[in-house]
């Protein structure tokens, strides 16, 4: 029974992760706007791809340590 409960807990965590991923996909245009705003405010020094990639890398570290 303990193994079944552990499997159900992992399934709940996976479901929550999928829900967050779908929500992030729905909010993707907002991320593009943030990247474009950073590009405009920096006078073109920050590429929107680099801005979004930096956020992605930070999210990986936060997800790993939390």
Could you characterize the architecture of this molecule?
The chain is an all-alpha fold and 66 residues long. Helices cover 86% and strands 0% of the residues. The protein has one domain. The chain has helices at 2-26, 28-41, 48-65.
Q: H/E order of the elements?
A: HHH
* Span of the ends, CA to CA: 28 Å
Number of helices: 3
Q: What is the averaged pLDDT score?
A: 77
List keywords for this structure.
0% strand; mainly alpha; 66 residues; 86% helix
Layout of SSEs?
Blueprint: H1 2-26, H2 28-41, H3 48-65
Helix pairs in contact: 2-3
Task: Tell me briefly what this model is.
86% of the residues lie in helices and 0% in strands. With 66 residues, the chain is mostly helical.
């Amino acid at each position: 029974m303990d193994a079944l409960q552990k499997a159900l807990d992992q399934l709940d965590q996976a479901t929550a992760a999928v829900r967050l991923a779908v929500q992030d996909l729905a909010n993707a245009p907002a991320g593009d706007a943030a990247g474009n705003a950073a590009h405009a405010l920096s006078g073109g020094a920050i590429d929107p791809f680099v801005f979004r990639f930096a956020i992605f890398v930070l999210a990986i570290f936060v997800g790993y340590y939390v």
